[in-house]
Structures are given as C-alpha cells and as structure tokens.
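Methylglutaconyl-CoA hydratase, mitochondrial isoform X1
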Amino acid sequence: MAAAAAAAVPGALGTLQAGRARLVAACCARLGPGWRLPGSVTGPRVAPAVWARGWTPAAGGGSAPRRGYSSEVKTEDELRVRYLEEENRGIVVLGINRAYAKNTFSKSLIKMLSKAVDALKSDKKVRTIIVRSEVPGIFCAGADLKERVKMNPSEVGPFVSKIRAVIDEIANLPVPTIAAIDGLALGGGLELALACDIRVAASSAKMGLVETKLAIIPGGGGTQRLPRAIGMSLAKELIFSARVLDGQEAKAVGLISHVLEQNQEGDAAYRKALDLAREFLPQGPVAVRVAKLAINQGMEVDLVTGLAIEEACYAQTIPTKDRLEGLLAFKEKRPPRYKGE
C-alpha cells in the first residue's frame, strides 16, 4: 500500500507522504466500491464505471407549471420534494413549507430532511438539487425556539447534533446543490445555505449567523463554513456582532454568487437557481459529480495532495461511456447524449 511505502521513507517527508496517501485514498473511497487511485499514487489504475450504480429512478406525478414543477414525488406539510420534468428533468427541488413557524427547524422537519436527502443521494436521475422555501419572504429562520424552550438541557445538545448531521448530509450530496434565498435566512437557515455549493439571493433577503444574540454559537457548521466562504476575519466580525446582511451586502463579501431584484412572485432567487441548474444539465453527470468531489476534498488539504486527489478523480472518468460519447459527439458536431455511465 502507498501509505505503508511512504511511511518507510525516513523523517518528516515520509510522514507527510503517508498522510497525503491516506487522504487521497479516503477521497477515492467516497467514490464507491471498485474505485482505485491513479498509478502514480498507489498502483495501477483500475477504474470501473460504478459511479452510476445503485440508484433508483424517480416517481412521476402531478404538475404546477408556474414554479416549473411537473412531478411531485412526496408532499409533506413541512417539506415538499419535487422532481422536475421535460427540459428540467434531473433537477430536484427541496421546498421548506413551515409558514406558521418561519420555516424553522423542528424535530419533524429535521427527520423529513434527513429522509429526503438519504433518498436523493442514491438516485441516479438526480443531477442538481435546489433548496428553497415555499413560504414568501422566508428562507429559513433557524431553529424552532418555541420548541427549543420546551426541551430539557440534556435534549438540546443531541438535537443540535441532528441538525448539524442533516446539514452535513446536504453538504456531502454528490450532485451540485443550489440555495435559492428569497427571504430571511438566519442562524441555521444560513448554515443550511452555506452547506450548498452555490447560493443565490434576492436583494431584499436577509442573512446572518445571529446565535451570539442568544448567548450561544452557530451549531450547524456556521463557524466552519462561513470562514471558508468569506475568510476568517470577516466571518469572525459577522458572528461576533450577529450582523444581518441584505442580498447586496452578502454579494459584496462573497457570501452569495448572484443577487437579483425581487419580482412580484417573490421567487427571483429560485428562478436564477433554476437557470443555473439548467446550465449544469447538459454536462457529463459522472464528470460533474467527480469534479465536485475533487474540489471539496482538495480545498481541505495542501496543493500537492489536492493535485493527487484531482488525478485520482480524473482517472475515474477515463473508462466511462460518457467520455467516449463526448468525443464522438465532438467529432460528429452534435450535442452529446450522456447517460451517466
């Protein structure tokens, strides 16, 4: 094994090489059974195209054209999961719908989110996921404090851990995720958005990690993901002050990628998210997933290790049918027809 060989190298260099090999091996392990590292890292390339295995197709259903929905797989009072159809096929929308509680995280909503994410991460048909609100003017106002005040102190820690775990599950989804922030995103609501790959917001939206106002700290990953998104110093300033930013301010500091003037329907951010998701759809599904993994894993390590992770991930695209289809489509001057294989 590469890690064992590297460990045999004397001194700190051997320790560094061994650690790097373990990191790259762990990255490839996330690709699933049968994936191996490139020869330059741990041995000969053995890279069967297993990325697309083990997924279940989405169900069909009704329609709601105004929102771009045409297949509702599951509808709950507090969470709606919709698979889009026709030209939007492959896009899934997670819509939070707790209007009476400003979309705050309750025990039941967290269970629903966990169940939905668990199904989505193993669904071959899913290409991009949009997280949005079904409630005008609200994205998610964080934890349900009315429910929280009724908890015993011994219950608070485990429940916050469940919120953190669900947000981590969303961060670890294999496909691109987009947070469409059309309203208030405070505390855990912003932490949910930070777990998504891309964030878009209306200029009227309000965002902030405001937990210090309640004499606590962000517990859903905010102390870790906000500094990674906008830098340590500014993240500290925002968390220490519990400051709330509007869409323009959030764009200025790099918290979101796009800011839009809100429309009459109140869904400007969602419409932009849908446009972005449509841009992703024509690309190779395996390539997009592996690119996300390479970026996410590479950003947590030094450059040399990151480049090894990129090499390992690139190797997984070589034996795919999609790669050959891309070359053939280029030769024949036609759009490729990728199948995620």
